[in-house]
Amino acid sequence: MMEPNPNPISSSLLLFLLFFTPTMVAPLGINYGQIANNLPLPENVVPLVKSIGATRIKLYDADPHVLKAFANTGVEFIVSLGNEYLSKMKDPSKAQSWVKNNVQAYLPATKITCIAVGNEVLTFNDTILTNNLLPAMQSVHTALVNLKLDKQVTVTTAHSLAILQTSYPPSAGAFRRDLVNCVTQIVDFHCKTGSPFLINAYPYFAYKGNPKKVSLDFVLFQPNSGIVDPESNLHYDNMLFAQIDAVHSALASIGYKNVCVQISETGWPSKGDADEAGATPENARKYNCNLMKLIGQKKGTPMRPNSDLNIYVFALFNENLKPGPGSERNYGLFKPDGSQAYPLGVPAINAVSTNSSNSGGSGSTPSASVPPASSSSGYLAITSDSGTSLSPCKTLLLYFVSFGLWKKLDNYYHL
């Protein structure tokens, strides 16, 4: 229970919050990876997700335990088909069977709104995978049409930022020449079906790759002088926005100016190996908390100022079985016992009951959620306060940031 507040919120303001907050919630998403053997049971994850104000979850599979646990919560889901399923999904009958068993079976109680077919396929440089991607997406969409689910569930795929040949300045964003034809066909599919274009973007990789050249404040959304795009004259005060607008420019360069771009992964590790610069709890706290504040402000990028940010933070938990450098196992906002990996400005939730039999989630593979090392190509080729515990008043204020109420409460408390 929250301690009595020496400056209680007035009853009129409380009524305002209670009745009007739900319509103002920014669409914060979170990636729920399960490459671990010590995570909480899915039913104990529900309050953790709610504690950070997340309304959307991206899974790397279609774990039935998770989908059942979140039934009737209103949380929207992207479920995923791993790269290993692409060849099978080309078969219409297999695609329809998968959709029946992994999507239709949970509707409408669990709000599944999207299916991600494959993850970062184009940057594996695997011809077979690449050739199977679009046919698999089309087959899954056809299954949705046949089952009369295509109006509520879309089909997409997530890309690494490394599909860009050029990303600086943002106005010069362009896709890799060898991928232009493939990307064009995929974007055409998005336009015909009304599905989003997903990008995994990690400013952390740019900083880790060249910490002496890349401004830490610029990648952590901290106050800084920023950069000005010499072509568009737009000012950027953080790298993520520059990366997003580079994708917008790349899409425009192939004739698509109005595609919905969503950031399906972005985050910062709280721990890493000795050679992984910047992987600290304080930097992770600044990146993710500042990012959530930006999302809560419903503020667009310089190139798309009136478009809400559609971002999925990576990730919900530290995952102890992920391969690769130490950072890969430390992207979580939460530790496996449900405690915060670093102060998030929200109340702590007990979620210590673990599912010890879970060693990766149904259908999960290590490659399905590991951010690609190829994103760390440097800066010019970019492919709040202290960490001390917060008073109940400050905790409440930070939580309300995600609802766009900061200014109202700021004025109320004269902070």
TrEMBL record:
* Annotated SUPFAM superfamilies: (Trans)glycosidases
Q: What is a single molecular function from GO for this protein? A: glucan endo-1,3-beta-D-glucosidase activity
InterPro entries assigned: GH, Glyco_hydro_17, Glyco_hydro_17_plant
Q: Which residues form the signal peptide?
A: 1-25
> In Gene Ontology terms, what is a biological process of this protein?
defense response
Q: What is its EC number?
A: 3.2.1.39
Listed A to Z, the keywords are:
Glycosidase, Hydrolase, Plant defense, Signal
Keyword Signal in the entry? The reply is yes
What catalytic activity is recorded?
Answer: Hydrolysis of (1->3)-beta-D-glucosidic linkages in (1->3)-beta-D-glucans
Query: What family is it from?
Result: Belongs to the glycosyl hydrolase 17 family.
Question: What protein name does the entry list?
Answer: glucan endo-1,3-beta-D-glucosidase
The organism encoding this protein is: Solanum stoloniferum
Task: Give the lineage.
Answer: Eukaryota, Viridiplantae, Streptophyta, Embryophyta, Tracheophyta
